[in-house]
């Protein structure tokens, strides 16, 4: 797990908002961790024709902020762009495929973090084994997921 500070950072980030007949408040604090690992999303009035919908989520970073921040910035986009979300009377069905899509991105980030340790000659071979849509050309990496 992540490293700890000698004493907690107790400065809090507070925010609030209202809309669609809702009022919300949120607060976050780094605490004992070296960096803030958690993130949140609070959207009142989802764009693209869903203005009467709202989206709230909290993401626990678990020893790092990268995935929590990615989810905070992109999970709603993955959900609203999902065909299951747009094409059904039960949009909640899109949640699981959208989370799976984010897990794919998490795997991708993890792989690139791990592959920093490998010699550059091995990286294209290893990536092509993990991602069949992988191609490598002039130090540019292309992956089709």
Structure report:
Residues 23-145 form the PPM-type phosphatase domain. Pfam families: PP2C. InterPro entries: PP2C, PP2C_BS, PPM-type-like_dom_sf, PPM-type_phosphatase-like_dom. The longest helix has 21 residues, at 95-115. A hairpin with a 2-residue loop joins β1 (4-19) and β2. The strands form three sheets. A two-stranded antiparallel sheet has the order 1-2. Strands 3-4 form a two-stranded antiparallel sheet. It has helices at 66-81, 83-86, 95-115, 123-130, and strands at residues 4-19, 22-33, 39-46, 50-59, 135-137, 140-142. The chain has 145 residues and is of the alpha+beta class. Mean pLDDT is 74; it is low at 141-145.
How many helices? The count is 4
Strand-residue fraction?
35-45%
For the largest sheet, list the strands in their spatial order: 1-2
- Give the termini separation: 29 Å
Which word captures the global form?
Answer: flat
Spans of at least 5 consecutive residues whose pLDDT stays below 50 are 141-145
Instruction: Give the biggest beta sheet.
Output: 2 strands, antiparallel
**Proportion in helices:** 25-40%
Q: Pairing-aware structural class of the strands and helices? A: alpha+beta
Radius of gyration: 19 Å
Number of strands: 6
Order of helices and strands: EEEEHHHHEE
Query: What's the pLDDT, averaged over the residues?
Result: 74
Domain PPM-type phosphatase: 23-145
InterPro entries: PP2C (IPR015655), PP2C_BS (IPR000222), PPM-type-like_dom_sf (IPR036457), PPM-type_phosphatase-like_dom (IPR001932)
GO molecular function: metal ion binding; protein serine/threonine phosphatase activity
Protein name: PPM-type phosphatase domain-containing protein
């Amino acid at each position: 797990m992540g490293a700890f500070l000698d004493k907690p950072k107790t400065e809090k980030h507070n925010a609030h908002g209202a809309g669609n007949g809702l009022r919300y408040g949120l607060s976050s604090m780094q605490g004992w961790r070296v960096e803030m690992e958690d993130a949140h999303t609070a959207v009142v009035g989802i764009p693209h024709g869903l203005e009467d919908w709202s989206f709230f989520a909290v993401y626990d970073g678990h020893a790092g902020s990268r995935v929590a921040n990615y989810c905070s910035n992109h999970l709603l986009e993955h959900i609203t762009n999902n065909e299951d979300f747009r094409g059904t009377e039960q949009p909640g069905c899109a949640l699981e495929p959208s989370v799976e899509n984010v897990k794919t991105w998490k795997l991708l980030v993890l792989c690139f973090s791990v592959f920093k340790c490998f010699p550059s000659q091995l990286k294209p071979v290893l990536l092509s084994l993990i991602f069949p849509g992988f191609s490598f050309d002039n130090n540019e990496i292309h992956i089709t997921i």
